[in-house]
What we know:
By secondary structure, the chain is an alpha/beta fold. The chain contains 20 helices and 14 strands.
Amino acid sequence: MSSEILIIDDNPDIRLILKDLIDEAGFKTRVAANYNQALSEIDKKLPDVAIIDVKLDKGDNDGIELLTHIKKKDKDIPVIIISGHANIEMAIKSLKSGAFEFIEKPFDRERLMNFVNRAVENYKLKYENKNLQTQLFHSFDLVGNSQNIVKIRDQIEKLSNSESRIFINGPTGSGKELVARKIHKISNRKKGPFIVLNGALLDVKKYELELFGEEKNNGSITYGSLEKSSGGVLLIDEVTEIPLETQSKILRVLIDQKFRRINGNHDIKVDVRIICSTSKNIHDEIKDGNFRADLFHRLNVFNIDIYPLRKRADDIPVLIEYFSEKISKNYNLKKFDLKPHYNYLINYNWPGNVRELRNLIERIAILSPGNSSEKILNIVKESLKSSDKSSFDVKDTLSIPLKEARENFEKEYLTTQLKKFGGNISKMAKFVGMERSALHRKLRNLGVKGLN
Length: 452
């Protein structure tokens, strides 16, 4: 599929030159002649690459505003800034604002096309990297033969074609997001976006910004999750973490089916199906005054309960077989046999639930690509021993500050990735989506040492 380039310039001759050059290179093009046309084109459909003139019809820095607007919608889209009134300050400002390249008019056509080709490759690389990171998770099925999982699969089938709100209860790592994604995948909204808003990870001051978006005095707009998920599904994960003041505003949105951005002057209609989830006991949260009962009743039109893995032990062998095959295939590794260790695995408490089991299978696949039963057992015991703090423990995690819990997770995650890539920092940085130097700093700060 050919990449699409958006050309924004108020000079018709420049627009024509750029369009002819880019069309000839085999890319698709769209054009905009002024600031408002550009906003319309950007909001209608994001391009793969944008070429923007700094000065349009509204002011000296129109292009920088449009650059910022694009980056807020998708930070990975490369933007090439062009200007006939260039100076060092302008170039620095555009690059600090996230421009991919800056070029002066009159421009060298070969140099410009070199920038365009590099920008397209850059975007494709980031897009493929995103897909690589999410492919494994998004391709998972809801696996198991327990009564609980059979019931949930039936609920998914029945609820998919309705517009009713859904409330999913289940411990951390049990598959709440997976259930929500399955509902979206076979629903009437499957062609629309699936947006996740994680209530546990947001700064307490940013809930409303993340939900409703914001209109600034300079005319720029920050879009919130309600707007981003229009026509699709919004999953509010760990909804019980949202402050009471924001809860009341969500309730008003559900009643009125409209909202306003922060500092906005007009109403925006809501066209989104809301699914909420929590790992806490919602009834205890309501009783303790942490969650509004009236909001819960609005959100809890249909309820899905996912049991912890220890309560559906008959699913464990099925999950082990499934993850072993899936992960070995995705990483192109030799499949291994865990049947000799089933009793050990079934009797384990699995505080991290299905996620912990999946992580264990991935760890075995990477550290023991052969079929040594003794080596596999050692990895299992080392990973699951109760004294090992890297083995996810729900109670311990809930008793420590968020910053410490996040650091524990990051340390285990990066240690595993370091082993997976054999200590190759460059490959690891590309996979996890970090700059090499930033990854080095992160590993050093967390005390993660390289492999010998």
